Amino acid sequence: MTGTVAGEEQQQMITGEQVFADTIERDQRVEPRDWMPEAYRKTMIRQIAQHAHSEIIGMQPEGEWITRAPSLRRKAILLAKVQDEAGHGLYLYSAAETLGADRGDLTRRLIEGRQKYSSIFNYPTLTFADVGVIGWLVDGAAICNQVPLCRSSYGPYARAMIRICKEESFHQRQGYELLITMMGGTAAQREMAQDAVNRWWWPSLMMFGPPDADSPNSAQSMAWKIKRHSNDELRQRFVDMSVPQAEALGVTLPDPRLRWNDDRAHYDFGTPDFAELTRVISGAGPCNDERIARRRSADEDGAWVREAAAAHAARRQEAGA
Amino acid sequence: MTDEIKHEWPLFEVFVRAKRGLNHVHVGSLRAADHEMALHHARDLYTRRNEGVSIWVVRSDDVAASGPDRKDAFFAPSGDKVYRHPTYYSIPDSVPHI
After folding, report:
1. Beta strands B54-59 and B11-17, pairing class
2. Of the candidates B29, B22, B28, B32, the residue with the CA atom closest to the CA atom of residue B54
3. What number of other Cβ atoms are within 10 A of residue A122's Cβ?
4. Sign of CA dihedral B67, B7, A42, A121
5. Contact A295/A110 with Cβ under 8 angstroms?
6. E strands within A127-264?
7. Which residues of chain A are within 8 Å of residue B37 when distances are taken between CB atoms?
C-alpha cells in the first residue's frame, strides 16, 4: 500500500519536473500552483522577499525629507514617490505569498536580520540634493536591474515587476528634474548637487551586486531564467546610460578611469569597492542599525492598530451573522 | 503563538475593472481585516494612477481553483474537437461574408 503511494508520488514528481523544465525551456511562465523544484521556490522567495524589503526600507532615506522639502510641489512629489515604494513592497509581498510565504513572517525575518535588503539604503541622505540623485541614479540602477525581471520565469514576480517599472520611470524623471533645477540655481546649489553625485555614484554601481566571478547563485538563476543578464552586463549598461545624462546635467562622475572605449563601444570605468559592499550588506554600513530599528518600531507601534482592526472586524462579523 | 496568528489579517484577491466595457482582471492580493478595509487598501495599492473604475475583493480562502495536476482532465477534452472552430469548415472562396 505505502509502496504504491510512494510510487505514485514519484511518478507525479517526474511529470512535474518535466513540465517545469519544458515551461522554462519554452520561455513560458511558472505559475503558483505548478510543481517546481524546492530550490527554485526557495530562491524565488528569497529574491522576492529581499526585493520587497528593499522597497520598504527604501522609504526611509527619502521619507526623512518629506517634512523638509523646499516647496509644496516637491513635498507632494516626494510623498507620492515614497507611497509608491510602499506599494512596490506590497506588490512583491503579494507575489511572495503565492509561493507559500507569509508576509508577517517575512517582516519578522527582516527585523531580526535573517533576510537582507539592498545595500544602497544603508547610506544617509545628507541634503535635499540626495533626493534628486536617488531618483536619477539609484532608481535608474533599479530600472536597469528590473526591466529584464519583467520577463522573469516566475509569473507573479514578472507581473509585479511590470507594474513597478512603469512607476519607476516617474521616480527617475522627478529626480533628474530636481537636479536640473538645482544645477540652474546658485553656485552653492550646484555644489550640493555635485556632492550628492560624488557620494551616491559608487554605491549605485554596487547595486548590481558582486562581479560575475564572485556571484555564486547567478548561474542557477540564469538557467532558471529568473535572471536574464549578469551583474557586470547590467552595471555596464547603467554606466553607458548615465554618462551622457551626467553631461547633460553638468555634473562629473567621480571616477578618473571613466572614458569611452571605441573598440568595445562602451565606457570603461573603475572597479567599485566590493569590500565595502560586503561590509554594508553584512550590517556595517552607515545606517543599517537605524533602518532596522525604524522598521521594527513601525511594526511594534502599529501592532495595536492591526489588533484593533482585527477585533473590530470579528465583532462586526458576529453582529452581522 | 496562536494569539499572534489570530491577529494576522486574512488574504484577499483583488480584481480591477480598468474602464467601463472591460472585465475585472486579477491584479494581486493584499492583507486586510475585513472586506471594507480590503477595498480601501486595494484602492490605495492598485489604483494610484487611474488604473480602474471599479474594484472587487474576494477572500483568497473562497477561491476554488482547478489545479495544474488536473489540467488534462479539465482541458484535454476540448483539444480534439476541431469541429468547434470555424476554420474546420471549408467554404469556397467565391462565397461572400462567411
Report:
1. antiparallel
2. B22
3. 24
4. positive
5. yes
6. 259-261
7. 309, 313
The reply to whether B82 touches chain A by the CB within 8 Å rule is no
pLDDT digits (tens, 9 = 90+) for B12-63: 999 999 999 999 999 999 999 999 999 999 999 999 998 999 999 999 999 9
- Enter the DSSP assignment of B9: P
Contact between A310 and B44 using a beta-carbon 8 Å cutoff: no
What are the C-alpha distances in Å from A158 to residues A91, A228, A272? 11, 12, 29
B2: pLDDT strictly greater than 70:
no
CB count within 10 Å of CB A151 equals: 13
The H or E element spanning position B15 is: strand B11-17
Residues in chain B: 98
Residue A107: pLDDT band with limits 50, 70, 90: very high
Q: Measured between beta carbons, which residues in chain B are less than 8 angstroms from residue A80?
A: 48
Considering only the beta carbons, identify the residue of A87, A309, A313 that sits closest to B45: A87
Of the partner residues A34, A91, A307, the one whose CB lies closest to the CB of residue B68? A34
- Output the pTM of the full model: 0.90
Instruction: Tell me the pLDDT tens digit for each residue of A77-102.
Output: 999 999 999 999 999 999 999 999 99
pLDDT reported for residue B98? 86
**Per-residue cell: A6:** 510512494
HSE (side-chain half, CA atoms, 13 Å) at A207: 30
Q: How many residues does chain A have?
A: 321
- Which are the contacts of A242, defined by CB distance < 8 A and separation ≥ 6? A137, A140, A253
Q: What is the DSSP letter of A251?
A: -
A116-125, A148-157, A213-222, A231-240 — which is least confidently predicted? A213-222
Over the stretch A168-195, which tens digit does the pLDDT of each residue have? Answer: 989 999 999 999 999 999 999 999 999 9
Identify whether the C-beta of residue A285 lies closer than 8 Å to the C-beta of residue A275.
no
Number of CB atoms found within 10 A of residue A231's CB: 19
Which cell numbers in the block locate residue B97?
461574408
